[in-house]
Amino acid sequence: MDKTNLAKNIIQFVGGKDNISLVWNCMTRLRTNLVDDSLIEKEELLQLDGVLDIQETSSQFQIIIGNNVDKVSDEINRLIGHDTKQQQASEKSAPRKGFKNKVNGLLEVIAAIFTPILPTIIGAGMMKVVLALINLTDLMPESSGIFQVFTMISDAAFYFLPFLLAVSAARKFSVNEFIAVFLAGVLMYPSLIAGSAKGLEPMKFWIFDIPYMDYSSSVIPIILGVWVMSYVDRLVNRIVPSMLKAILSSVLVLIITVPILLIVIAPLGFYIGDYLSKGLTLLFSTVGPLAGLLLAGFNPFIVMTGMHYAFMPTAIQSISSNGFDNFWLPFALISNMAQAGAILAVFVKVRKPEHRSITFSTGLSAIFGITEPGMYGVTLKLKKPLFAAMAASAIAGCVAVLFKVKTFSFVAPSIFSLPAYIAPDGDMSAFWAILVGIVLSFTLGFAFTMMTKYELNNLTTNQTKADEKGKSEPDEEQLNTPKQALTGSTDVVSPLTGKIIPMDQVPDKTFSEEIIGKGIAIEPDQGS
After folding, report:
1. What is the 8-class DSSP label of residue 55?
2. Can you give the three-state secondary structure of 314-363, one letter per residue?
3. pLDDT value at position 358?
4. What share of the chain is helix, strand, coil (3-state, %, to 5)?
5. What is the C-alpha radius of gyration for the chain, rounded to an integer number of angstroms?
6. Are 329 and 407 in contact (CB under 8 A)?
7. Are 407 and 318 in contact (CB under 8 A)?
């Protein structure tokens, strides 16, 4: 796949660079805010080599590319001349039509806030995996300096999570990042944390009580705080005269926002997160097998719709509050392994080299935690393998819950995350539970797909279709011309008299740019 050509074609088929307000990416999707959605040429996009599928939400146009999406995103931003400042400016001016649809708007906000911080969270989570392996093998004592530094790396991102979220939330809500970090600093102020540990009575702020709470590792309080601050910031900037904004704006924003944050928003966000994690614990203690069946079984649809971003804060909050997550990460891993099994079963069945290449590469990608290339490129195209994988993961998810599956770190759901299921104290029960789950899901996904009949020709890639169309499909003129007329020479008679002019002088770019093919232009002597 030529990333430069793909980027150029995407720019062209979404309406040109002037139609692009903002371009960024998550793990597999190119996400765009466009000025005019009517300029999108969807069919042409779907025919591009490297484009797996497209998705539309209320305010985003998403192009699913797969593992190389970050390189394509960078190339597009280079070609259209967007740097970081321009992207932020574009986001401020981008139409907010997504908020008309509350559900899609909320999902997009969550995705925009959590996607930038994922490398940090996953890096810290993988370091917890390393620590678990060190503990399991007694490689070094916990008092070792190396172990202590590794512990700092594993804990810092989670403990100071409000700072990370403050930056990404500020970018999403279009407010000053440094004031947002200042707000996170207030939540992490030592006296608040110390007062919470000592169980002190609330402090008085005029007639209001400010409770002592430990907001380290919290998710919801800072996001709500920055969101409220964005409205306060707009209000203050409308009221304060231009000559005084540099002096008064920031202090007025903080004087208004911080008390509201400490009195109402932060405690509310804290209790929402706390009760959410307790509710999930209760859910899995009562109807756990059913919950596991549904979450693992329907995970492909959850990923396709972007709903998995809504589960990220829940998983992080659960790990912070309970020390583990048994709500999303285990079932995402089980679902990924079922997809891998189904894709590799298709690999066994197919014979064409191009089909074997795409099934093998996307099957490995699914094992390593990226399933969208395999879903859009293989199982969804063939349909029945997708349902086979869903059935397999549903069964495995149900069984895994019975074995008390849970993960103790936030890591990408891949084969490399298995050590994250070893408890910090060395307990291996959750590890055996996830091992049973993924072996069962992979095996059943493979077996169900092998037993299912489907049309393998539907697997043809976009590039293969384009090549076959260019080589074997006649154009419309050939289809409407008798076969014998296609041999030998043919005289073409002009339907009018006049002056022949170059095609590039024709006002209509459809003809001047030869979009529909080569031709001639005649300026008539008579008539029009």
Report:
1. E
2. HHHHHHHHHCCECCCHHHHHHHHHHHHHHHHHHHHHCCCHHHHHHHHHHH
3. 84
4. 65, 5, 25
5. 28
6. yes
7. no
User: Angle of helix 84-93 relative to helix 161-173, nearest 10 degrees?
Assistant: 60
pTM: 0.70
CA distances from 490 to 19, 481, 521 (A): 44, 12, 19
User: Which helix (H) or strand (E) segment is 445 a member of?
Assistant: helix 429-451
Distance of alpha carbon 38 from alpha carbon 309, whole angstroms: 27
Token pair of 214 as six digits: 């430990």
DSSP states along 285-296: HHHHHHHHHHHH
Residues 6+ apart with CB under 8 A from 388: 342, 445, 448, 449, 452
Task: Return the amino acid letter for 403.
Answer: F
Residue spans in the chain of domains classed CATH 3.30.1360.60: 3-94
Q: Scanning the structure block, which residue is given the tokens 């089909």?
A: 355
Q: End-to-end distance of the chain based on CA atoms, in angstroms?
A: 47
Q: What is the DSSP string of 498-523?
A: EEEE-GGG-S-HHHHTTTT----EEE
The CATH fold of domain 3-94: Gyrase A; domain 2 (3.30.1360)
**Structure confidence at residue 115 (pLDDT):** 80
Handedness of CA 370, 108, 36, 174 (dihedral sign): negative
Under 8 Å between Cβ of 342 and 459: no
CB 39 within 8 A of CB 107: no
322-378 pLDDT tens trace:
788 888 899 999 999 999 999 999 999 888 888 888 889 888 888 988 888 888 888
* Backbone phi and psi for residue 189, each to the nearest 5 degrees, phi listed first: -60, 135
Residue with structure tokens 């306060």?
232
- Phi and psi dihedrals of 199, rounded to 5? 70, 35
* Cα angle value 237/241/245 (rounded, 5°): 60
**What's the CA angle centered on 210, arms 205 and 213, to 5 degrees?**
155
Are the C-beta atoms of residues 45 and 52 closer than 8 Å to each other?
A: no
Which pLDDT value is given to residue 464? 47
DSSP class of residue 377? I
- Amino acid identity of 244? L
124/157 Cα distance (integer angstroms): 6
CA–CA gap between residue 379 and residue 459 (Å, rounded): 9
Determine the Cα–Cα distance for residues 381 and 238; give it in Å rounded to an integer: 52
Q: Which residue has the tokens 């790990």?
A: 319
Write out residues in the chain with pLDDT < 50, as ranges: 84-100, 463-488
pLDDT at residue number 93: 41
- pLDDT 10s digits, 368-395: 888 888 888 888 888 899 999 999 999 9
Token pair of 344 as six digits: 């590799």
Answer yes or no: are the C-beta atoms of 385 and 371 closer than 8 Å. Answer: no
The owner of tokens 């740019």 is: 513
| Residue 362 token pair | 């996307």
In whole angstroms, what is the distance from residue 498 CA to residue 492 CA? 16
Distance from chain centroid for Cα 126:
20
